[in-house]
Amino acid sequence: MNRTHDFPPVSLPFLPGNSLVDPTKKRFHLSQSLVYDKGYALKNQPQFKIGGGKVELSKIEPAEIQCLDKEFASLQFILLKESYFVKFSDVGRCEDPGFIPAHVALDKKVLHFKGYFTEEIIDSPVESERVRYLDIFYYLVDDSVAMSEPQQENSGITQGKFLTRQRLPLGQGDRLLSWKNLNTAMDLIVYSKKVRLYWCDAFTREWLTSEGIEVNSNEASPGDRYIVSRNQPERNYVSPSEVDSLHKFLTLDRVVLRFYATWDERDQLYGEVRKVIFETQSRFVI
């Protein structure tokens, strides 16, 4: 007769020579402890040990959960506000949406402004100052600013990237530019240059308004005197000619002189009388 005895497990002290290798354990990879939820890294509690076996966690028993549910249902919070009673059963309707990190909610959201600044021109007989236009882009995800100057044909000056994407200091202190400091019809100091913001797009106006900022109306951009003068046609002073070729061309166009004649060659051998027509037409080159 075989008899089995249940002996309590006995662990050996952790001393040299007492470490035993369990041959049944073959999986020694680490359990995943980090997960991504809506683009945000969250910590996850591992459920399995290294080498196998579950991790013992302190969990709430089902009886405790039922007890908490009963206490939770018995509680009722009533808030009196503007003659409206908000009960605890209505709180679920007013719950905030799931947490979305800022780098996900504000990704690819850019505020677009247009501005200009004037620079003094020395020793020029044509202009005393020049107006240079800028496109200002404010990236909400990291509060950085980038500026570029639109290309202008035959301008003769270096245009394109004006300010690389960076955090812009505000004044002489340690403060940095924020979207709360931006609006149309205002002056913005960019490294000792005064840039006038005169325009913003529809998305920028709508987003700033949703954040409680009263956006000013767009302003008209000033014209550059030199560019305006270049767009005007040049005046050519030409002395009148005694012979008006254009008038002759318009009045004598398709006017042909035709003459009828005879060519008598009867005094020659085998000669005869021929009828010919002469036509003359004046041609003018303008």
From TrEMBL:
Species name: Oikopleura dioica
GO molecular function: alpha-tubulin binding
Compartments (UniProt record): Cytoplasm, Cytoskeleton, Cilium axoneme
Keyword Cytoplasm: yes
UniProt entry keywords in alphabetical sequence: Cell projection, Cytoplasm, Cytoskeleton, Repeat
Protein known as: DM10 domain-containing protein
Gene Ontology biological-process entries: cilium-dependent cell motility; mitotic cytokinesis; mitotic spindle organization
Major place of residence: cytoplasm
DM10 domain residues: 107-212
Domain of life (superkingdom): Eukaryota
Pfam families: DM10_dom
CC per GO annotation: axoneme; mitotic spindle
InterPro entries tied to this protein: DM10_dom, EFHC1/EFHC2/EFHB
Entry annotated with the keyword Cytoplasm: yes
